[in-house]
Amino acid sequence: MDINGRELSKKIKNEIKDEVDKLDKKPGLAVVLVGENPASKVYVRHKEKACQKVGYFSKKIVLQDNTSEEELLTLIDELNNDNLIHGILVQLPLPKHIDSDKVISSINPNKDVDGFHPLNMGKLMIGQKTIISCTPKGIIELIKSTKIDMNGKNAVVIGRSNIVGKPIALLLLQNNATVTMCHSRTKNLKKHCLDADIIVAAVGIPNFVKEDMVKKDCVIIDVGINRLDDGTLAGDVDYKTVHDKVSFITPVPGGVGPMTIASLMRNTLECYKIIEGIE
Ligand code: NAD
Fold first, then answer.
1. Are 242 and 272 in contact (CB under 8 A)?
2. Taking the C-alpha atoms of 12, 134, 216 and 208 in order, what is their torsion angle to the nearest 10 degrees?
3. Residue 40, φ and ψ in degrees, nearest 5
4. Are 168 and 200 in contact (CB under 8 A)?
5. In a mutational test of the pocket of ligand 1, which residue from 161, 181, 186 has the highest number of ligand atoms less than 8 Å from its CB?
6. pLDDT at residue 272 is higher than 80
7. Which residue of 39, 62, 99, 168 is 20 to 30 Å from 249, comparing CA positions?
8. Strands 28-34, 87-90: parallel, antiparallel or unpaired by DSSP?
């Protein structure tokens, strides 16, 4: 059965809109795009559209490919001090001459809607309340929407990136799953996967997880967004063959992607409340 990320995302955005309609001052999100990465442009467009939908003030700042690190850091400093802006998102990847870690660390942690700042990442690690990065936050909502109990379940995360693999492993752990992290050096990945009640695939290789790698009735979260030569999108899971064997699966598109955006809208509201001193 599909987990419908589009529907869940719509529901969350409607809830946010209802809340925002009652506010005198609108939450403001700044999205910074450096360069001409086509996928990044699409993501930024989706984020802007979502802001319009929920009633946020959104500010898109597009900088040229050859923008210096110093110029970008100056812009972030301005946004950190801008009273109309409650969330700052720098679309990754940045051009190679810019140090992404330095840029992310320069964002006010209370405006870090992506949850990538080391302080927010560290808080997640030790289980403190924090701004949780959007994709992992959305994934937990998707799993919860199936009503399966994560308590004691075997969860396998394929991929160990800072933006998906590591934080989702921590969140699954917080939800009392027994978590195994797999990656490019993992030996006998299939064995780990066949033992899993929940698989989160964040690899970046189209159709990587095959039907013979998954246990009957397990839950599959497909994070991958892979553009194929014919222009279509494919996930990291071979949806066609896996779909009938598992209990739940997120489709690509229409699964994790929309929930990432919904989580970004949620995080912006959370940052707004911190910055404006509400609650
Ligand atoms: P990444 O390239 O940073 O990490 C990929 C991970 O896959 C690495 O940790 C690597 O060890 C692992 N890996 C590579 N080959 C492997 C193999 N043969 N066996 C096991 N593990 C292997 O990627 P990322 O940023 O985590 O993104 C992963 C995918 O998710 C991409 O397709 C990306 O576009 C997508 N993504 C989607 C969203 C969304 O909102 N839906 C958000 C972020 C990323």
1. no
2. 130
3. -60, -40
4. yes
5. 161
6. yes
7. 39
8. parallel
